[in-house]
């Protein structure tokens, strides 16, 4: 039994089943045993691979996107380039390298990384040691100083905890994690939630998810009041719907989310419609979502791949082609992954969203 499971069982024995939302939050970010706190989950030897780890093209195009948005903002003298959940720091390193020759943009920059994991923060420090621009780390969005910003969040929102609600005759009940027959098991809270019914027309047994998207709400309010834009990239659906999307991945395979808590990555699909509502409530404007494939093609990923292939060995050229397909092909990441931009209401559509 993992140390986290032992602790969860003690909590459940003392106070009864815990909400799915708390379960997910503890699995990922328990200060001692949380999944992101103790390990480097990325790459071939890790549990999963993300777009910036697949190819340098991803971070490079996003660097160019950030510089273009800064121009669109009127080239403010100072700009905070924020990244939420920077992982290994690869995206930011590629973005900064790609914009090295843009002197005015570079001199405006201070890079601010929002990261919960001390272990990943160390990796980011190493990765960005010679970034050539000031870089600082923050545990929460709220800790950032004021000012215009361009923010990036790749596969960050999917790791924010979700709650799950199940429809019964007498209303919506929270989905919980308890212990049954000696194992962790899903359960449903006996009493319905108070308050107005959500999604009233849902059939019996329907399941809806809601996300703790506080960091996005904070970001949207900040952009609405101080200017700038954010780019959110993640896997998910464009329209809100019903169904359980909680997913565990371990060693590049799907796993049972209730087995070995703290040892697998837990995520749930991003509901882009819900995220857009959160951003609009904060006073910001939303563009998209567009599919990741369409977004990267509009930013010129095919041309970038062709350029890289000019100086490549046949093996490297094949790798570049494979990475291009993996990032953009509809049956790979091209369609399930989507991009959403959150901007100041006066900014206009950023590159990639101006179809
Ligand atoms: N963007 C990276 C990493 C994605 S994994 C990439 O594309 O490769 C999710 C990242 O978000 C990790 O760095 C994780 O430690 C961080 N994270 C998860 N929840 C967080 C939270 N609530 N606040 C800040 N960072 C968080």
The total count of strands amounts to: 16
Count of the separate structural domains:
1
State mean pLDDT (0 to 100 scale). 95
Number of helices: 13
What share of the residues lie within helices? 25-40%
Beta-strand residue percentage: 15-25%
CATH class: Alpha Beta
The SSE string, one letter per element, is: HEHHHEHHEHEEEEEEHEEEEEHEHHHHE
Which ions and ligands are bound to the chains?
Answer: S-adenosyl-L-homocysteine
Named CATH architecture: 3-Layer(aba) Sandwich
- Unreliable runs, pLDDT <50, ≥5 residues? none
Largest sheet: 8 strands, mixed
Distance between the termini: 52 Å
Summing up helix and strand content along with how strands pair, one would put the structural category as alpha/beta
CATH fold node name: Rossmann fold
Summarize it.
With 355 residues, this protein is of the alpha/beta class. The protein contains 13 helices and 16 strands. It has one domain (3-343): Rossmann fold, CATH 3.40.50.12710.
């Amino acid at each position: 039994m993992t140390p986290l499971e032992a602790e969860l069982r003690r909590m459940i024995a003392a106070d009864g089943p815990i909400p799915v939302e708390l379960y997910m939050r503890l699995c990922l970010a328990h200060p001692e045993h949380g999944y992101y706190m103790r390990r480097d989950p990325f790459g071939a030897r890790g549990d999963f691979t993300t777009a910036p780890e697949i190819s340098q093209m991803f971070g490079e195009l996003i660097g160019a996107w950030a510089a273009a948005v800064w121009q669109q903002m009127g080239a403010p003298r100072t700009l905070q380039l924020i990244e939420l959940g920077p992982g290994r720091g690869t995206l930011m390193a590629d973005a900064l390298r790609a914009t090295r020759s843009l002197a005015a943009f570079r001199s405006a920059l201070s890079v601010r990384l929002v990261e919960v994991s001390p272990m990943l923060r160390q990796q980011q420090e190493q990765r960005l040691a010679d970034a050539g621009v000031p870089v600082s780390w923050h545990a929460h969005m709220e800790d950032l100083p004021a000012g215009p910003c361009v923010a990036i969040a790749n596969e960050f929102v999917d790791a924010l905890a979700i709650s799950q609600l199940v429809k019964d005759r007498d209303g919506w009940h929270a989905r919980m994690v308890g212990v049954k027959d000696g194992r962790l098991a899903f359960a449903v809270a006996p009493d319905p939630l108070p308050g107005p019914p959500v999604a009233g027309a849902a059939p019996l047994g329907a399941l809806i998810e809601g996300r703790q998207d506080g960091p996005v709400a904070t970001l949207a309010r900040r952009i609405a009041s101080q200017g700038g834009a954010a780019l959110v990239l993640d896997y998910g659906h464009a329209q809100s719907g019903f169904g359980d999307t909680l997913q565990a991945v371990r060693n590049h395979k799907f796993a049972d989310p209730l087995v070995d808590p703290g040892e697998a990555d837990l995520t749930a699909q991003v509901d882009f419609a819900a995220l857009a509502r959160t951003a609009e409530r904060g006073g910001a404007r939303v563009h998209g979502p567009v599919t990741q494939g369409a977004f990267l093609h509009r930013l010129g990923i095919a041309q970038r791949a062709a350029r890289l292939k000019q100086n490549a060995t046949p093996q490297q050229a094949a790798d570049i082609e494979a990475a291009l397909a993996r990032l953009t092909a509809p049956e790979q990441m091209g369609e399930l992954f989507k991009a959403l931009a959150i901007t100041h209401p006066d900014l206009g559509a950023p590159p990639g969203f101006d179809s």
